[in-house]
Amino acid sequence: MIEQHNIVTTPKYNFPNTQIDLEFPKRFVELSLNSLKQTINSAFQLNQQFLQQNINEQLYIPRPPARPIPLHPNSTETPIAAVDTSSIKLGETSRGIVIAIRGTSIWKIRHRYGYLRVGPFIFHITEENLNEVYKILQKTYFPEENLTSPRLMQIPTRMANLLERWLQTSLVKSISNGIILFDGSLTAGTANTSVHQLREILTIARNMGNVTLAFTKVTTLRFNGYLITDMLLNQKPPCLIEVPDIKPKPPLALLGEIYVAKLSNGNYAFRLDIDKEIPRELRIEAVERLLGNDIITQSYPETLRLAHILCTFTANEVIAMQHFIWKRHGLRIMNRPDMHRLLFGPFGKGESDNEAL
Fold this sequence. Notes:
This protein has nine helices and 20 strands. It is α+β, with helices and mostly antiparallel strands. It has one domain.
């Protein structure tokens, strides 16, 4: 059973057990409304392509991974919680882009799921307001950081990442003695994730008795030319392989120990990062408690899968948001010709295809 705790207009979050600082989402709402005021009576080119940013971590595996570690599900009652965010470009104006951002936290306690969806927040981002919007959001919740402002086409991912860090911080403060699931790795020092941010989140999680596990859906890590996730495909699940002694190139920092996880039958395995400050035996135990308390299909935990599903924008939601912008702010929807299709017909990739690369 899933209990819903919806949009952020209520005066109090329904996370389990604690009060949550609302200053950050309030800033999202304020900046969203202010940025959309700039779109009144503008022309609006629709777009429904997701914006993603791939990060090449440039990690080197110096020696072969260890032998597989067999796992035994542990059904000791343990809260399972996860966070994910999504960003999407709704369209373009003559001055910039219109984007939407949403995040979800979900938890499973005593066989019941509860979730909170934050957003969607709609922004009109231009070259003129880009730095201001990003810096205000960053300084609201991460005042000690001095992250560089992204380029225009990178800002949806970067803003979604700020929202994701806030949700992660709120969640690890709200759950105790549980398993916290992140989407992605525990690599810091990238444009998206500072070392200080991620280290602070992991420290709070440990102080609450939680163990943080991060699942990476697509990894570039290889040994002898082979993806590390291919190493377990012939092994009997559930099991882990520890990938030791990885040396990141500065400014990257690994805040988790890296494993390959095959948690169920089938040809599926994932890179799994586990907070390296947790003792080794407790890391293994945490994965076994995950197996005993969550549904695992295709080697992926259901709680993290639901977090992704509930924050992803559907086609109907995109149409509704575009209609809202048109109705509320008087945007004139236009259909700009796609020069790739116009010039090359079926052989042209199209502008939206190039943006998605």
